[in-house]
Amino acid sequence: MAIAERDATGRTGAAGASGADRRAGRKGRGTRLTRLRRDWVLLALMAPGVAYFLVFHYGALAGNVIAFKDYVPFDGLWASQWVGLDNFQKMFGDPDFWSAVLNTVWIALLQLVFFFPVPIALAMLLHSLTRDSVRKFVQSVAYLPHFLSWVIVVAVFQQVLGETGLLNNVLGDAHLHTVDVIGNPGAFKPLVIAEVIWKDCGWGTIIFLAALTQVDEQQYEAAAIDGAGPWRRFWHITLPSVRPIIVLLLIMRLGDILSVGFEQMLLQRASVGPDAAEVIDTFVYYKGLVGGDYGYAAAAGLFKGVVGAALVFAANKVAHRLGEQGVYR
Amino acid sequence: MSSAAQGLRRTGSARRQPARPAWRERPKPATQAAKAVALAAVVLLVTVPFLIIVSTSFASNAEVVANGGWVLWPQHPTLNAYRELFDGGIVTHALWVSAGVTVIGTAASLACTIGLAYALSRRDVFGGKPILLLILFTFLFPPGMIPGFLLIKGLHLLNSYGSLVAPVLVNVFNLVVLRGFFQSVPEELYEAARLDGAGEWLILRRIVLPLSKAALAVVGLFYAVSYWNAWFYASIYLDSDHWPLQQVLRTYVVGGSQLADSAAGDASAVAAPQTIQMAVLVVATVPILLVYPFLQKYFTKGVLTGAVKS
């Protein structure tokens, strides 16, 4: 994260070192009471936001106790019976759950292999363009799909690849074999990857482009004068400049391996069935909100949360071992 | 546009001319051709589907049927599909819901995020550190869908538009972006203001906010886009009388149910369902296309990339 680091600390660092002392009105830490009295405006400004996090995050987080209960809506959260680890036992013995876990990890890995490198490649392509106008135009077009909802993206793909869609019309007119993509469980995973690429590969270039433009142009010039060809310049200058970001994003992906595009899956699960499209999040949704088995669904959700947090933690450790910045220190 | 470019090449703008620098090899024609093909593919893959959707929404029923479900360019453009939609049926209502939730939600989110970001950007604010940690932790460990649902139910927010705003009021990423920006306001300005006797509230309003217009625009637009695009909470918290546009789109276009006669106004026999579906799609997309140029202006200003670390 050297780039972002430089950006953020370059600005804040100066203010931080000397600023705290220089603040005439805020010198010294004082007692709790004086600090409280001094900061009451700031505390009032924070209050609504803090209340939001306490109620809708920590309040909801506390609601996870139902994972250890046999939740009966009529009895309510507190009166429902404690059942210990029954929900988790049931979950670990449930083939549907494991099928959802497998789908989730499988799709996440496919994304890692087929989606992850695309923004990097596109960013390098865009960066290599010498004409600004072309680059800006392509950027504008490529960023756009990121801002469309998954509903629109899935609808667009249906219109293009569906049974009566654009592609099959063209193929039919040319007397070629039509393709069966939408609603075909066998084609579902490639379809999902294609959708993610379409929606986010342009947007994903932003962070890499920012890193690439931070590279001092003189490095390239010096290397070229020393006889390094385009390939060697790429390998020794371009690639190292984006490496910290690649590591950071890989870590974040790893931590997110158990949550692949909930909305995307939910929108299409009905058309291909759970065998192809059930992921952990949709499992939670169907078991809990559709099936009414709240305690069981909450157990699956909690499992996902705990394992996900542990994965982020572990990945961050690994990054530090490798000498990278990671997500946090 | 030009400001975006400046931001993008903060370091290189002075040195790099639009032309190829002298030390770079003359590109091979084959490489150039491959690049051109790749770029054209990116542009076409994004634009062509939209062209077809917009065209189809303006086409007549007969033409769409004759062409097998879509047209590339309508022979006799008609507004029939849109007339149906805006005739006071479910789509008209959903449009109002979406607009209202987007406007009110964005205002509420911005207000709360600004308050938090400003207070947390001050170095030694009372309780600042623990509160920041408390907030960042929620990023690592989200509460989960089922507890969230039971909470909304317990707070009696089911079937109220508040259920679309309250659970997503403050976004941690937006908060971090804004806080980073506020921190970059030069300390001298605070000092001068305080010597003039200004309090925190006045400093925020008169100095920090005016200096942070770019960041506020980005964060505000991010909120607006996410409120406009949201449908999942609507699908679990609201009944169909309260649905916003995206949820209507989801049900009638992605879900495959046809808009009922009564739903699309009336007499939807006049226009083919396909044209109406495409019109809904267009209506749901247009606001994004309208704000997009403004968003685009700020993307690369370093506002986002500078604050990615959290």
From TrEMBL, chain A:
Give the transmembrane ranges: 40-60, 105-129, 141-161
Spell out the PROSITE patterns in the cross-references.
Answer: ABC_TM1 (PS50928)
- State the GO CC annotations: plasma membrane
Residues forming coiled coils: none
Q: Where in the cell is it found?
A: Cell membrane
Its placement in the membrane is given as: Multi-pass membrane protein
Q: What are the record keywords, sorted? A: Cell membrane, Membrane, Transmembrane, Transmembrane helix, Transport
- List the Pfam families hit by this protein, alphabetically: BPD_transp_1
Location, primary (coarse class) = membrane
- According to the entry, every stretch annotated as the ABC transmembrane type-1 domain falls at 101-315
The protein's superkingdom reads Bacteria
N-terminal signal peptide:
none
Q: Output the InterPro entries linked to this UniProt entry.
A: MetI-like, MetI-like_sf, UgpAE/MalFG_permease
Gene3D superfamilies membership: MetI-like
The record's section on CDD domains has:
TM_PBP2
- Show the segment(s) annotated as Disordered: 1-30
What protein family does this chain belong to? Belongs to the binding-protein-dependent transport system permease family.
Q: Can you name this protein?
A: Carbohydrate ABC transporter membrane protein 1, CUT1 family
Provide the species name.
Actinacidiphila paucisporea
Automatic annotation (TrEMBL), chain B:
Membrane-crossing segments per the record: 36-59, 94-119, 131-152, 164-182, 214-234, 276-295
Q: What are the record keywords, sorted?
A: Cell membrane, Membrane, Transmembrane, Transmembrane helix, Transport
Classify the source by domain of life. Bacteria
Q: State any GO BP term from the record.
A: transmembrane transport
Stored PROSITE patterns = ABC_TM1
Q: Which InterPro entries match?
A: MetI-like, MetI-like_sf
Which ranges carry the ABC transmembrane type-1 domain?
Answer: 95-295
Compartments annotated for it: namely: Cell membrane
Q: Which GO terms describe its cellular component?
A: plasma membrane
Region Disordered, as annotated, extends over: 1-27
How is the protein disposed in the membrane? Multi-pass membrane protein
Q: PANTHER family recorded for this chain?
A: ABC TRANSPORTER PERMEASE PROTEIN MG189-RELATED-RELATED, POLYGALACTURONAN_RHAMNOGALACTURONAN TRANSPORT SYSTEM PERMEASE PROTEIN YTCP
Q: Which family does it belong to?
A: Belongs to the binding-protein-dependent transport system permease family.
Protein name (Swiss-Prot/TrEMBL): Carbohydrate ABC transporter membrane protein 2, CUT1 family
Q: What species was this sequence derived from?
A: Actinacidiphila paucisporea
Taxon lineage? Bacteria, Bacillati, Actinomycetota, Actinomycetes, Kitasatosporales
